[in-house]
Write a structure and sequence with these properties.
About 45% of the residues lie in helices and about 15% in strands. It has about 800 residues and is of the alpha/beta class. The protein starts with about 45 loop residues before the first helix and ends with a helix. It comes from Shewanella atlantica.
Length: about 800
């Protein structure tokens, strides 16, 4: 069996790793002399993933950036993309405009234009409309136009008069008069000389005379109807000639005003086609310019910006005025902000909508570039995730009314032509959200094939410390703070190592470092200093501790007034001081907990009271089972242990989880078995496996500091200290007062490899595990801890042979 050496306390040098900044030349006295770094340190893996995704043109190579908030995911991606050339990976930028579809107004058309052309075209068309609004009415308001119109009207009138004149003469020959009524209709009346017949005078005529007049009128009425129909034909011919005349006049004006515009955009087929369609539509809708219908004109000119017909506006949805690839961050990713929407306008009680009321979303603005969105915010908003997947699958951006889709109504609305979509989506989220999407959405892996996994920590070396100093310099330059001297840089690097819970690592949680720098800058400015020094960093850390330590103060007060029972001196059987961590959203601290174990005659079972009352978590229960297995392998190899053990955390009301107390629980049980007291001036933390080997745990710094503070409350002794697993030594970045106390021999920290070393330290008695021999027949010296326990168990077995069997 392996023999473990006696354990000596750790030296003060092992409790804290100071920063020497040996990777920086001595002439770099402050961040003023350091060149700010243009990238996030320690994230090479994530940066390579982003570079790869941006290089892939195929569909589906979008990015999910994994990491906790504050790691600098957004900053790193933005810095890389700002150095990224849009044409280097096939990203050609375009302007996108919506214009009216002259054939079907409900389906506006898309104009895809070279970047920077959209606004230019819009202004050119507006200038054309302003000139047409003035020029067309003038072309129809001059003597030449009136003369031609009067001539056409005169020809029509001459034809009509000639036709009526012949019919009038024929009527006169039959004593019949052709007259026009006040209502404008024609009437044939029988005449008695110069006066028309009355009913009495007509009745006095002979039957033959009456029949003659009636026959003549009937014949003339028939001829009159033919003439009236001919009038209609002639009027239509006149209208056509007048229309052709108007069109010719308008064509002359348009040709003069639009030829230059058509020549300017002759290289763009889409614009050329649109201008041709607009030319024809203006001819067909001259009344919009001639102000012949006031109501129609008012509606057609109802515009929020310019007095021109709405149908001829250019709705510039996206205008890429620079050659730089668009990079957008959508802070509020709801359906309308992502996919755009169609507004409704009201004019004199009339609600209407048209292509000019289409508004862009983030996908429109970032088309040809990158859109960054928070994954959780996307999933929180209804319909956004499905719409985003649909757009990425089809590589088209269809703008449909969300209200129509949700309500399933048949409300008339616009159906704009879809815009081709060429975009990279970067979702920023945590690992849990990534797992949920992978598990529940089979399309996720197809659409987001690249994972940019951001590191939490980076190795702490001379080179990385120098890089970290440059990173600190970049934050200071970016926020225009006071510069840090060399001592302040060292202290911030040490704080980063404490945040990483490892002497050999640096935290990459850039938000914590930035916040510390801001608060240190505030302290320095408040003290009228011209530079941030280590004292200002310490003051900032102290101020932050004061703001968040209310719960810690309350817990420590319970030790002061004796509400929480704890002993940091003397000895006790079956009682040990374990260590735990209490965490809030922005702070965590360590406190000691008393663990007690009692034994009674039984069948070797271990009753975990925490588990029985549902206050113990699964990991804690696992730890108890492991230590029970180890104890059985030590003391119950040949016969059942005739003791039942009850194990509990005293004064625990909020639940217990984790296996970091399993070594402490074993020490309490061994003490109860052997009836040997345990030192109360020592606390212990650490988990163990079934072979008794000490395993590392988390929060080791907070746990040590918590017991140190309680020892100060209860009374300090030089023998006090904490036992930790040896594998946790590298995690030590303790407070300066604890390091100083260890250095002066007023506090101790022991690092162990095996639980038997803890038992020996806490009882002052050898464990007895260094005896050679086979496991089945292993016996322990009578004066060892396990020997004493074994003797007691053997006595119980002899007294109760049935239980032993």
């Amino acid at each position: 069996m392996k023999t473990f050496p006696l354990v000596s306390p750790l030296s003060s040098d092992q409790l804290y790793r100071t920063s020497e900044l040996s990777g920086l030349a001595p002439e770099f006295k402050s961040t003023k002399n350091l060149t700010p770094i243009n990238e996030i340190v320690g994230q090479e893996r994530a940066q390579q993933a982003v570079e790869f995704a941006m290089s892939m043109k195929e569909k589906g190579y979008n990015i999910y950036a994994i990491g906790r908030n504050g790691l600098g995911k957004r900053t790193m991606v933005l810095r890389y993309l700002n150095r990224h050339e849009p044409d280097g990976h096939g990203h050609t930028l375009h302007d996108w405009c919506y214009v009216i579809n002259f054939d079907e107004a409900r389906t506006p058309k898309v104009l895809k234009l070279p970047s920077g052309t959209g606004m230019e075209l819009k202004k050119d068309v507006e200038k054309l409309m302003v000139r047409l609004v003035k020029a067309l009415p003038l072309a129809f308001d001059n003597e030449m136009y009136y003369s031609r119109a009067e001539k056409l009207k005169g020809l029509l009138a001459h034809k009509q008069e000639s036709a009526l004149l012949g019919l009038t003469k024929e009527a006169q020959e039959s004593s019949i008069s052709l007259t026009i009524t006040p209502q404008g209709s024609y009437e044939l009346v029988a005449m008695n000389g110069e006066e028309p017949y009355t009913e009495e005078s007509f009745a006095q005529l002979s039957k033959k005379a009456q029949d003659k007049l009636e026959t003549a009128i009937t014949s003339l009425e028939s001829k009159l109807r033919v003439i009236v129909r001919q009038f209609t034909v002639w009027e239509e011919e006149y209208s056509e000639k007048q229309l052709k005349h108007d069109e010719q006049v308008a064509q002359d004006v348009l040709a003069h005003l639009t030829d230059k515009l058509k020549d300017k955009y002759s290289s763009l087929p889409a614009v050329k086609s649109y201008l041709a369609g607009m030319h024809k539509d203006i001819i067909d809708n001259l009344d919009l310019f001639l102000e012949e219908n006031e109501e129609q004109l008012a509606l057609s000119y109802a515009s929020l910006d310019k007095k021109m017909p709405r149908r001829y506006q250019i709705n510039v949805l996206v205008n890429q005025d620079t050659e730089k690839m668009p990079i957008l961050i959508e802070e509020t990713p709801n359906y309308h902000s992502i996919f755009g929407y169609i507004e409704n306008a009201t004019f004199k009680g009339t609600i209407f909508s048209d292509f000019s009321l289409i508004r862009p979303g983030s996908l429109h603005k970032a088309n040809g570039g990158v859109l960054m969105i928070d994954a959780i915010k996307v999933l929180e908003q209804p319909y956004v995730w499905d719409g985003l997947k649909r757009a990425l699958r089809s590589r088209k951006l269809s703008l449909s009314s969300l209200e129509r889709e949700v309500s399933l109504s048949g409300t008339i609305s616009l159906d704009p032509e879809a815009i081709p979509l060429d975009i990279k989506i970067i979702l920023l989220g945590d690992y849990q959200t990534y797992q949920l999407l992978q598990h529940y959405d089979p399309e996720f892996s197809e659409l987001f094939r690249v994972t940019a996994d951001f590191e939490d920590v980076m190795p702490r070396t001379q080179k990385s410390e120098a890089q970290y100093a440059q990173f600190i310099s970049s934050i200071i330059h970016g926020n225009k703070m006071l510069h840090c001297d060399r001592s302040a840089i060292k202290r911030i690097i040490e704080f980063s190592s404490r945040q990483a819970d490892d002497q050999n690592k640096l935290s990459l949680h850039s938000a914590d470092i930035a916040n510390l720098l801001r608060e240190s800058n505030y302290c320095a400015r408040s003290g009228k200093a011209n530079m941030i020094r280590a004292s200002h960093v310490e003051q900032a850390l102290h101020n932050n501790e004061l703001r968040v330590c209310r719960l810690k103060d309350n817990v420590m007060q319970s030790f002061v007034n004796g509400t929480t029972l704890i002993s940091t001196q003397a000895h006790a059987i079956g009682q040990v001081n374990a260590l735990s961590v209490i965490a809030t959203s922005d702070h965590q601290f360590g406190v000691p907990n008393r663990i007690t174990a009692t034994t009674a005659f039984g069948e070797g079972k271990v009753f975990d009271i925490e588990r029985k009352v549902a206050l113990g978590g699964r990991l804690h229960s696992k730890g108890v089972m492991i230590l029970s297995a180890y104890l059985a392998s030590i003391l119950g190899q040949t016969a059942k242990i005739p003791l039942t053990t009850h194990l509990t955390f005293e004064q625990s009301y909020g639940g217990v989880d984790g296996d970091s107390a399993s070594m402490a629980e074993l020490c309490a049980m061994v003490s109860a078995f052997s009836q040997q007291p345990i030192r109360q001036d020592i606390a212990i933390t650490g988990s163990m496996n079934q072979f008794g080997e000490a395993q590392p745990i988390g929060g080791v710094n907070e746990k040590i500091e918590g017991f140190f503070d309680v020892c100060a409350i209860k009374g300090r002794k030089a023998t006090q200290g904490v036992i930790i697993p040896k594998s946790n030594v590298q995690n030590l970045m303790l407070r300066k007062d604890i390091v100083e106390a260890v250095k002066k021999g007023k506090f101790n920290i022991w690092a162990i490899e095996h639980v038997t070393q803890a038992i020996e330290l806490m009882t002052g008695i050898p464990s007895g595990m260094n005896v050679k021999g086979s496991r089945k027949s292993a016996t322990y010296p009578d004066k060892s801890i396990f020997g004493m326990a074994q003797l007691r168990l053997e006595k119980l077995r002899k007294e109760n042979p049935k239980v032993a069997k």
